[in-house]
Amino acid sequence: MTLVSPSGIVTFTTDYGTRDHYVAEMKGAMLCRSRQLTFVDVTHDVPAQDVLAATWQVAQAAEAFPAGTVHLALVDPGVGSEDRGLAIACMDQYFVGPDNGIFSHVLFRSGNALIRSLDGRKLGLEPSCRTFFGRDLYGPAAALLASGALSFRDLGPVLRKPVRLPDIEYRRDKATLLGNVIHVDVFGNLVTSIPNRETQRSRVTATFVGTHRIRDYVECYSDRPAGTLVAMPGSSGFVEISAINGSAAVALGAGRGTSVRVHLRA
């Protein structure tokens, strides 16, 4: 795998919110390593300590950015523990954060990834305390990588088995696709773990969210009148369940983890 040159762009996904100083403090720590960086805030509104929610946000945003972008993701309930930090090179992008499964969606989508542990001591990034590794380790490491001051290989030793979360899995049982809801967006759309490509091979006859049957599988929201519950190929690359001009999450009483079955024409 060929490593691309860093772009100088750093995206930022956290559960820090914007009320406190944490985001600004981290950006300051990164600017101390390079004043030429461009920051893009993906979101700082990931629910507190919700690593799984963060995996979705960072993976979705990454696909829209130029090659060589560094994606910094920090939702770290175990900060200060023995969890290793890591850096990933895949899809012509770089990812930096804790080794707690936060890049599970990235690894799920990538067929080829290089992974390194972050060696803070070797990098001269010894944390000043055990509660803000984002400021003291992950942010500076991302800045050094994004600016080209350090190469990906300089970050630390090869890591072969990063933590992965299991919630993005799906399987096929004959003419049925079995998965679950992995994300609920701001509109109440239910994003499932079933890739769009699986529904392009055969006609969808019905979709079940829990015990609720969705009869319509459409291409866009305007295909059915307001209030209709539909399944469709989502912009995320995964099948979504929507209520036209409404919230499918509310209408179905569904959320992350709800089972989903998509039946195909045999």
Which keywords apply here?
single chain, 266 residues, alpha+beta, Elongation Factor Tu (Ef-tu), domain 3, 30% strand
In short:
By secondary structure, the chain is an alpha+beta fold. It is built from seven helices and 15 strands. It has two domains: 147 residues, S-adenosyl-l-methionine hydroxide adenosyltransferase, N-terminal (Rossmann fold); 96 residues, Bacterial fluorinating enzyme like (Elongation Factor Tu (Ef-tu), domain 3).
Note down, in words, how this protein is organized.
The chain folds into two domains: 147 residues, 3-Layer(aba) Sandwich (Rossmann fold), CATH 3.40.50; 96 residues, Beta Barrel (Elongation Factor Tu (Ef-tu), domain 3), CATH 2.40.30.90. The protein has seven helices and 15 strands. The strands form two sheets. Strands 7, 8, 9, 10, 11, 12, 13, 14 and 15 form a nine-stranded mixed sheet that branches. The chain has a six-stranded mixed sheet with strand order 2-1-3-5-4-6, sandwiched between helices. It is elongated, with a radius of gyration of 20 Å. The two termini are 39 Å apart. The model has no long low-confidence stretch (mean pLDDT 92).
